[in-house]
User: What shape does this take?
Amino acid sequence: MDTFITTFLPNVSEIWDEVLLSTWETLYMTLIAGLIAGGLGVILGVILLVTQEGGILENKHLYNVLDKLVNIFRSLPFIILMALIVPFTRFVVGTSIGTTASIVPLVVATVPFYARQIQNALVEVDPGVIEAAQSMGASPGEIIFRVYLKEGLAGIIRVSSVTIINLIGLTAMAGAIGGGGLGNLAITRGYNRFQNDVTLVATIIILIIVFISQAIGNALVKKVSH
Assistant: This one.
């Protein structure tokens, strides 16, 4: 195995520690940003759902404002978004460079994307179940937690899996401009120094992380669907 790596991946064999560190940084960014964006995204998605036209807490003015903000932030290319919120990133973590600093724009980019996914997933909950809960005197909070989030759990897991995969891709872009992780390794080592084996290994590791995330998501969906 060592002979194979030395022969076909000569540059990688010299920087295994850096490869492992970059993998950890990617997982760290994905996990922390995913947890924060997940919580905020569910809250925002539910607010969009219940305040939209026909929602249980219909509020056209609030919905229109939030809807426009979500659309704006979803439309911004991630690299431009990172540059735009540099002052905010510095305010939150004290710097705009590094793995921890990258979490801020990752969250800002992921929350609107995930919120829209949550809204679309929960819209599919059977309206008859909502009406039945209302007829029995359930409060909006009870409908949200006992009907929407419970009945829409499979859809929530499905869109969460999609969002995690999207987030992994964003971490690679964050790395390309100083955020650390496998994206940074692929650019600084692989692309800039013409070390194609480094780029290849970084890509393969990212793909493995994506495939594992997808497999876990699919397994959870199957479990809650039965």
